[in-house]
Write a structure and sequence with these properties.
Blueprint: H1 3-6, E1 19-22, E2 35-42, E3 47-50, E4 64-67, H2 71-85, E5 96-104, E6 117-118, E7 121-122, E8 126-128, E9 132-136, E10 146-150, E11 155-160, H3 167-170, E12 178-187, E13 194-198, E14 204-206, E15 216-217, E16 223-227, E17 236-241, E18 247-255, E19 261-263, E20 270-278, E21 288-290, E22 302-309, H4 325-343, H5 349-372, E23 389-393, E24 396-400
Antiparallel strand pairs: 1-2, 1-4, 2-3, 5-22, 6-7, 8-11, 9-10, 10-18, 11-17, 12-15, 12-16, 12-18, 13-14, 13-17, 19-24, 20-21, 20-22, 23-24
Amino acid sequence: MDTGLGELSLDDDFCIGWYVLIMELVSGGPAVGEIGKVSTYTASTTTITLVSALTAQIKTGTDYELHRTNPTLKHNALARASVLSFPNGSRHGLYLPLRNETLVVDNLIANFDFETYTSPDFSNWTAIGSPTLTQNTSYFVHGSNAANIAGAASTGIEQNLLTVADGFGRIDQAVGKQLHVRGWLRAADASNGRLRVTFDGTTYTNGSYHSGDDDWEGPTVHYIDVAIPADLTEMTVSIEKSTANAVQADMVVAWIDPIYRYSILTAMLRGPFQVLQQAYADLPNGPYWPIPAYGTPTPGRLLRLTGMGLLSQPSTDAGTVEIDTNQAEYFLAQASQWLYRAIVQGGSQQERDYLKQLRLDWQQDIATMERSGTTMPNMAAQRPLGAWRVEEDSAGRYLIFPQPR
């Protein structure tokens, strides 16, 4: 019963066939988010009866919404609007501009920037001893996180390049070549924190210890260049600390041979339209420079790819989309024309004709907004001849660099 409906002097046929969406006004109220279809409305008691019972008794004071159209369809329409708004061929639309800096030239180390973490471990890294591993969101070189390695002395993390994804395929016939390792370390005490490499689990090639100045030291300090032996049983890169004080690590990379094919992140549906490389080894946040025609990027440097992805697809009332006020009109127009197409099958012929006309009206509004500049201009490729290209197959899309002739 909703006494507020009595103030509207509604008849018994009010809201029959409509939908009730349960909202949460009472803290801890049950059935929040559930939807029920109205079977009857009794004006004398202002009581709404649903076709099927909800999963729990609704508490007094619970907020709810009444919808002529199923709220699930409305949410689906908003989600579909992200797809329908995406540029199609020469048609302008709305998209999410993407700038990706997760590819490192020739890099063999997975999760090099420690952005993937499920407590208590970093993905692809194995603990040495019993360290306490967390993400450090206050001190990092690039991205949003660094590895925080705390706990007892003589602990750390390591990664065997022979066991990471595609490892064997990418370092085949490596004997006699050199393994190059670079990283960023931060420590508050001297002789604590360094890079190490082992090919047998016993003999190590060690990098320099951190100076202990409580600041980041980069690849001009923390590096290893070591020949790969013929009798290797592993190819393990480690970050180890010698005292009980914490060490932070970020952007730890390793390479042997040039890599000419890189997987493009799946969120980048169109592009990349521009591929730049980190200009200086000790400046990962810029500047970034174009790769020259028929050139290959520098090993160990970050790549910056720009492209286009889908706008966020809101699934709840609290969901947001990355658009401004003018673009919202276009987005909602796409959602509305999809919604009317979805519900046009029901009702009388007169209702179907009416909905079809509404859909056509929305399509005309969409075309008008596209011509008026409400949408975003498509990105243009900035690719020097012979610098790079994009290929794709059933497994994904790839950035291809030319191999030396």
